[in-house]
C-alpha cells in the first residue's frame, strides 16, 4: 500500500500490509478444514488477547475480546454496582462521542454524567501560554477540571489517553490518583495510543482500558480489547453476554448462566474471526518495535509537518511535545473537500469536525511530509487560501 499511497490517516485506519493480506489468506485456507477450522479460529482469538495483554503490561486473564470500544464501555458501565450515593460518571468534552454516549445511556437508572471542559482549552504550541516554554500548564488545568467534579458521588471516571480530535495526551495517572482517593474506578480509552507509544496499565493506574485493532495496531475493524484490573470484583454480572462469556463455552448447557472469574466474563458471542487473524498480523509488525522510539519518530515527523505547513501559511493545531499524541490538525473551512483532494493526489488523511487530522506511524518518513505539503499547496492554488484567522480548540 505504501508504494502508491502516502498514508497519514492511521488515527482512523492503519495502512494495509502484506502481512494482513497473508493472514486473511490463511483464514480462507483454514475454512477448508470444516469443523476443524474452529480450533484454529479460537487459537487466533486467544493469541491476539495474550499479545494485547503483553503490550499493555497485563495478564491475559484480565483482558476480554469485544467487538468494539463501545461494547467494552457498556460492559463496564452495566456491571459497576451502584453503591449508595454514587450516581455520577465524570467524563470530559474531549471524550470520543461513542464512549460518552454509552455513559449518557446509563441516565435511565438515574446516573448523572458530567464533562470536564478539557477540550475547551487552547492547545496550539504557540497559543496563549500553553507552549513548550512551560509558561502554561494545560495538563494541570485538565487535572483541576476533573478534580472539581470528582467527589463521593462519583461511580466512574472516564479519561481518553490521547484525544481523538486534536491528539492530546491526557494526564491520566494524575486524574486516576484523584479518582481513587475518592473511591472511584477509572476507565481509559487508549484507542489513539496503543501501538504508537508505550502504554502500561500500571503506570496509568487505571482500572479499565479499552483499545482496538484497526488504527495503530494495523488490523481490521471488528475487534477490540477490554482490560479489567479486577474482573471478578465488580458489583453485577454482565447482562450483555453469550457463549464466550461462560466458564466453559463448549458446555452447551442452555440452563446454565455462569461467569468465569477472568475478564472473559465480559465477552459475548462469536468474535469477528477475520479481524482476529488481522490482529495477529498487526502484532507481528508492532511487537518487534521499541514503542518509545516510535513515539519519538512520530513527534519529529509531526514537528516537521507543522513547520512545513505553517511556512505555507497554513493554520495547524499542534500540542507541545509533552502533551502530543501521533497526529496534528490542519484547519480548513471544508475539511472533507480537502481530504478528498489529497486522496486523489495519493495522500490519505482523516477529516474530523473542522480539522483534517494528519497522523504518523513508524512507516512514515520525511518524504511523506513533503508530499503532504506539496498536495496541500496544490489544493490552495486551486481553491484559494483558508483565511488568516488564528485557530484555537
Molecular structure report:
The chain is an alpha/beta fold and 393 residues long. It contains eleven helices and 13 strands. The protein has helices at residues 18-30, 37-56, 69-79, 97-105, 138-147, 172-181, 201-204, 273-286, 291-311, 335-344, 366-383; strands at 6-7, 63-66, 88-92, 112-116, 154-160, 186-189, 208-212, 224-228, 316-317, 327-331, 347-348, 350-352, 355-359. The strands form three sheets. The protein has a seven-stranded mixed sheet with strand order 2-8-7-6-5-3-4, sandwiched between helices. A four-stranded antiparallel sheet has the order 9-10-13-12, with helices on one face. The protein has a two-stranded parallel sheet with strand order 1-11. Strand 6, helix 7 (201-204) and strand 7 form a beta-alpha-beta unit. It is globular. The two termini are 33 Å apart.
Low-confidence parts: 123-135, 387-393
- Using only C-alpha atoms, the radius of gyration works out to 22 Å
The proportion of residues in beta strands is 5-15%
- For the residues shown, what is the average pLDDT? 92
* Terminal CA distance: 33 Å
Measured as a percent range, the helix fraction is 25-40%
What are its keywords?
393 residues; alpha/beta; seven-stranded mixed β-sheet; four-stranded antiparallel β-sheet; 13 strands
Topology:
Layout: E1 6-7, H1 18-30, H2 37-56, E2 63-66, H3 69-79, E3 88-92, H4 97-105, E4 112-116, H5 138-147, E5 154-160, H6 172-181, E6 186-189, H7 201-204, E7 208-212, E8 224-228, H8 273-286, H9 291-311, E9 316-317, E10 327-331, H10 335-344, E11 347-348, E12 350-352, E13 355-359, H11 366-383
Parallel strand pairs: 1-11, 3-4, 3-5, 5-6, 6-7
Antiparallel strand pairs: 2-8, 7-8, 9-10, 10-13, 12-13
Keywords: Aminotransferase, Transferase
InterPro entries: Aminotrans_V_dom (IPR000192), PyrdxlP-dep_Trfase (IPR015424), PyrdxlP-dep_Trfase_major (IPR015421), PyrdxlP-dep_Trfase_small (IPR015422)
Protein name: Aminotransferase class V-fold PLP-dependent enzyme
Amino acid at each position: 500500500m505504501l508504494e502508491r499511497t502516502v498514508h497519514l490517516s492511521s488515527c482512523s485506519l492503519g495502512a494495509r500490509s502484506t502481512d494482513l493480506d497473508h493472514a486473511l489468506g490463511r483464514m480462507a485456507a483454514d475454512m477448508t478444514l470444516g469443523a476443524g477450522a474452529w480450533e484454529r479460529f479460537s487459537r487466533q482469538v486467544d493469541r491476539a488477547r495474550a499479545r494485547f495483554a503483553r503490550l499493555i503490561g497485563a495478564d491475559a486473564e484480565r483482558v476480554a475480546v469485544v467487538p468494539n470500544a463501545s461494547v467494552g464501555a457498556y460492559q463496564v458501565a452495566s456491571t459497576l454496582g451502584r453503591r449508595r450515593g454514587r450516581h455520577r460518571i465524570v467524563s470530559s468534552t474531549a471524550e470520543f462521542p461513542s464512549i460518552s454516549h454509552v455513559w449518557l445511556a446509563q441516565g435511565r437508572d438515574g446516573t448523572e454524567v458530567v464533562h470536564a471542559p478539557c477540550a475547551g482549552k487552547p492547545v496550539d504550541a504557540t497559543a496563549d501560554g500553553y507552549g513548550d516554554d512551560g509558561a502554561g500548564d494545560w495538563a494541570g488545568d485538565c487535572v483541576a477540571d476533573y478534580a472539581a467534579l470528582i467527589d463521593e458521588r462519583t461511580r466512574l471516571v472516564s479519561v481518553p489517553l490521547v484525544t481523538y480530535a486534536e491528539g492530546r495526551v491526557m494526564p491520566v495517572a494524575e486524574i486516576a490518583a484523584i479518582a481513587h482517593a475518592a473511591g472511584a474506578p477509572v476507565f481509559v480509552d487508549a484507542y489513539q495510543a496503543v501501538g504508537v507509544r508505550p502504554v502500561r496499565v500500571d503506570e496509568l493506574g487505571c482500572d479499565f482500558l479499552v483499545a482496538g485493532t484497526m488504527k495503530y495496531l494495523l488490523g481490521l475493524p471488528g475487534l477490540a480489547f477490554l482490560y479489567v484490573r479486577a474482573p471478578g470484583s465488580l458489583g453485577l454480572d454482565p447482562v450483555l453476554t453469550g457463549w464466550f462469556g461462560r466458564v466453559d463455552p463448549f458446555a452447551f448447557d442452555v440452563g446454565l448462566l455462569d461467569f468465569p472469574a477472568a475478564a472473559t466474563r465480559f465477552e459475548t458471542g462469536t468474535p469477528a474471526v477475520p479481524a482476529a487473524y488481522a490482529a495477529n498480523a498487526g502484532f507481528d509488525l508492532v511487537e518487534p518495535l521499541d514503542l518509545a522510539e516510535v513515539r519519538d519518530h512520530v513527534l519529529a515527523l509531526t514537528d516537521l509537518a507543522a513547520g512545513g505547513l505553517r511556512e505555507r501559511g497554513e493554520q495547524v493545531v499542534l500540542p507541545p511535545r509533552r502533551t502530543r499524541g501521533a497526529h496534528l490538525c490542519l484547519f480548513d473551512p471544508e475539511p472533507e473537500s480537502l481530504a478528498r483532494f489529497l486522496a486523489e493526489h495519493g495522500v490519505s488523511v482523516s477529516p474530523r469536525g473542522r480539522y483534517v487530522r494528519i497522523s504518523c506511524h513508524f512507516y512514515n518518513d520525511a518524504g511523506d511530509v513533503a508530499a503532504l505539503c506539496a498536495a496541500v499547496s496544490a489544493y490552495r492554488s486551486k481553491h484559494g487560501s483558508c483565511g488568516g484567522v488564528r485557530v484555537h480548540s
